[in-house]
Amino acid sequence: MQDELGARLKAFEGRATAVARAGKDPVNEPMIRHWCEALGDTNPAYSGPDAIAPPTMFQAWTMGGLSGHTGRSQAYDDLLTLLDEAGCTSVVATDCEQEYLRPLRPGDEITFDAVIESVSDRKTTKLGTGYFVTTRMDVRVGQDLVGTHRFRILKYAPVRKTPKAPRPRPVINRDNAGFWEGVDRHQLLIQRCTGCTTLRFPWLPGCNACGGLDWDTVEASGEGTVYSYVVMHHPPFPALDPPYAVGLIELAEGVRMISNVVGVPYDKVRIGLPVRLEFQRYEDPGGALVLPVFRVPEGEV
Predict the structure, then answer these.
(1) What is the dihedral sign for C-alpha 254, 258, 260, 264?
(2) What is the mean pLDDT of residues 164-168?
(3) Which of 132, 62, 64, 120 is nearest to 95 (CA)?
(4) Which of 1, 7, 176, 249 would bridge with 224, disulfide CB 3.0–4.6 Å?
(5) Within 10 A of 273 (CB to CB), how many other CB atoms are there?
(6) Contacts of 20 (CB under 8 A, 6+ apart)
(7) Predicted structure pTM score
(8) pLDDT at 1
C-alpha cells in the first residue's frame, strides 16, 4: 500500500514546472567552441559552415545562469517543501537521461517545457530513506521537438550515524599489569624465568618449563615475522572496520603474540612476512589507549 506521504507526492506527477520557456541565447558558435576546448573534443562536425552543436551540450542551452529564469512554476518547490517537512532534507542527483531527435545548429532558438514526470514509492538506500523524483524537459525549435532531458534526484532523510564504539580495552590484572605498564612506555616486555631463563608470553604467574615463580623481563627488539594469520570479515565489531588481518607474530626472541598486522592491505599478508613493532595510540571517552601492532616494512610486499 502507498504510504500517506507517498500518495500526496504522487499528486504532483504531471504538474508543469516550466511552460514555453525560452533559452537565454540562441545556439551559438562561441559556446560550442568553449565546450569543445574544455573537453578536448576535436570532432570536425562541431566547426565550420555546417557545424552542429555537440549533443551532450543539450542541457546547456536551457540553463538560466546565475540570474535564473523568470516564470518558474511553484509545483516543484512545493514538492520539495513537502519532502523537507517530512524529514527528507537531503538531496543527491542520481542520473540523467537524454534523447536527441535532431542536431542543434548555430542560430536555433530553443523553447522548453518541463514537468514532474514521476515520484517513486518510498525507497530505502544506504544514504537514507526517501523518494526518487524525476523531471522531464521537452526541448523544441519552433514547433519541432528536438530532444528530451530527464533528471532524477533522491530526496531523503539521511541515516543517523551513531558514534563509533570505543576500542575494547584489555583486561588488566596483577599477573599482566607489568606488561601493560611497559606498553604505555612504548616497551614490549617479555617475562623471563630467573630459574631457567625461559622466555614466556603471554605473561603468567609461573614458568611453564620449570615451575619457578620468580621472573624478570627483557625488552623485545621489535623484529618479528608472521607465523600465522586470519582475516576477520564476520561477525563485524562496532569499533573495528573489517576486513582486517590479525597475525600470530613470532618475535625475534622466540615467543609468539597475537596482534594486528598493519601497513599493507589485508589480502597481502602472508606467512613469513617480516614485521616491525610499533605502538598505536587510540583516544576514546575512557581515556588514551596504547596498543602494540606490527607493521610490514615498506617494500616487503
Answers:
(1) positive
(2) 80
(3) 132
(4) 249
(5) 22
(6) 111, 113
(7) 0.56
(8) 37
Q: Are 46 and 54 in contact (CB under 8 A)?
A: yes
Distance CA 200, CA 217 (A): 10
278, three cell numbers: 610499533
What type of residue sits at position 270?
R
- Report residue 140 as a C-alpha cell: 523544441
DSSP result, the chain: ---HHHHHHHTTTT-EEEEEEEPSS---HHHHHHHHHHHT---GGGSSTT----GGGGGGGG--TTT--SS--SHHHHHHHHHHHTT--EEEEEEEEEEESS---TT--EEEEEEEEEEPPPEE-SSEEEEEEEEEEEEEETTEEEEEEEEEEEEEEEPPPPPPPPPPPPP--TTTHHHHHHHHTT--EEEEETTT--EESS--SS-TTT----EEEEE--SEEEEEEEEEE-SS--TTS-SSEEEEEEEETTS-EEEEEEESS-GGG--TT-EEEEEEEEE--TT--EEEEEEEPPTT--
Half-sphere exposure of 154 (CA within 13 A, CB side): 15
Instruction: Report the alpha-carbon distance of residue 37 to residue 30 in Å, rounded.
Output: 11
- Distance between first and last Cα of the chain: 56
What gap in Å lies between CA 119 and CA 80, rounded to an integer? 11
- 20-75: per-residue pLDDT in tens? 899 999 999 999 999 999 999 999 999 999 999 999 999 999 998 887 776 667 89
Nine cell digits for residue 286: 575512557
Q: Is the pLDDT of residue 116 over 70?
A: yes
Q: Per-residue pLDDT for 188 more than 50? A: yes
Output the CA–CA distances (angstroms, integers) from residue 32 to 25, 29, 142, in the order listed: 12, 5, 21
